[in-house]
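Lab notebook, bench 4. Still working through the backlog of constructs that have no structural model yet. Next entry is a single chain of 67 residues. Request: give me the structure tokens for it.
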Amino acid sequence: MILTPFDSGRRIFSGFDLSSTTDLTALAMVQRRDDGGWNANWLCWLPEETIDAAEKRDLVPYRQWEE
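Model written out:
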């Protein structure tokens, strides 16, 4: 997993999206940089026992992404 390092002296804003039934759960974190841009990190996950059905439904190679 590669995450952008954050500056410990600045605020980090985050949002959390809980999955309801079949979608992904996600956590996003952003922090303003000195140059006016943003650093961003996000994590997404789903239960391993649902990954095969999710790949077929979403047409996304989740197992490949995990590697």
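Notes after review: The chain is about 20% helix and 30% strand. The mean pLDDT is 90. Flag for follow-up if needed.
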